[in-house]
Design goal:
Elements lengths: L8 H31 L17 H4 L8 H32 L7 H8 L1 H4 L2 H13 L7 H24 L5 H8 L4 H29 L3 H6 L7 H11 L4 H30 L5
């Protein structure tokens, strides 16, 4: 886009300088991600440029990400835990956000602070607390314990996202639905949920990523055979550095990018439903 003719030389320099600075910052942040993906197609077992050849052995070879049993089992466990934790976190977080959105709730600020505390407290502190808390009922080393722990970490993201969506929600629609004879659950599913659905789905996606990428808690409460994908990558770095790790990282990068694009599309859809022009 051409600059206005009335801009001074200083303003033009500032204009282009700002864009160069922003581009440099983005390159600094994205460069490590862009550097790791080509290495996953390296034909050799070392991490260096230039690559001697191109190969998909780290994806589909004997020790490849999609063919090796250790990696596929870790991926399967991560997906199972993430789906279960996302389902619980979405239900609990949405209900909590609906309750906290009411102005007559006593101690609303304190309750919100407690709910989002897993986002503020360092994960290592949460992991230690969960380890000792789960020791008495015997949940350490169990699939249920991992799911509940990931649910506790993921719920705050749903609460914040849905709460932000409810701030622009017109509550007169709920009263109108109730005045027409609709039961509370009918009003929720027929009136409220369709309008806040983009926010709920966005919160669910954030919860899924939080559970899928978690590595600290699983190291504390997971059993020796319960290896999620991040734990498998962490163990691979410590025990034997294999280029398969770069393939796993590349898959996670692509997956996270798809989720971020989905969240952005849902945000725009939510704005259109509320009549906001982006």
């Amino acid at each position: 886009m051409a600059l206005p003719p009335y801009m001074t030389t200083t303003e033009k320099v500032s204009h282009y300088g700002l864009r160069i600075f922003v581009g440099a910052v983005l390159l600094f942040l994205i460069a490590p991600i862009l550097a790791i993906m080509p290495l996953s197609f390296n034909s050799e077992t070392f991490f260096s440029y230039p690559m001697p050849g191109f190969s998909t052995r780290w994806y589909f070879g004997e020790t490849g990400f999609f063919t090796n049993e250790r990696w596929t089992s870790a991926l399967k466990l991560s997906v199972i835990v993430a789906i279960a934790a996302t389902t619980l976190a979405t239900c609990l977080g949405t209900l909590a956000a609906l309750g906290l959105s009411r102005s007559n709730i006593p101690g609303r600020a304190a309750i919100m602070a407690v709910l989002i505390s897993p986002m503020i407290v360092p994960v290592i502190i949460s992991a230690i607390g969960l380890f000792f808390f789960y020791a008495y009922p015997g949940l350490n080393g169990s699939l249920l314990g991992i799911i509940l722990a990931h649910t506790a970490l993921a719920t705050p993201f749903v609460v914040i996202t849905v709460t932000a969506t409810l701030m622009s929600f017109d509550r007169t629609l709920m009263r109108a639905g109730a005045s027409l004879g609709g039961a509370p659950h009918t009003v929720f599913f027929k009136v409220v949920l369709p309008l806040i659905l983009p926010g709920v789905i966005s919160g669910a996606l954030f919860a899924f990523v939080t559970s899928f990428d978690e590595v600290i808690v699983i190291l504390f409460i997971g059993g020796p055979e319960q290896r999620t994908l991040p734990r498998q990558m962490f163990s691979g770095i410590r025990e034997l550095i294999s280029p398969t790790i770069t393939a796993a990282a590349s898959v996670l990068i692509v997956f996270s990018t798809i989720l971020l694009v989905t969240v952005e599309l849902l945000r725009r859809r939510g704005e259109r439903l509320r009549g906001i022009k982006s």
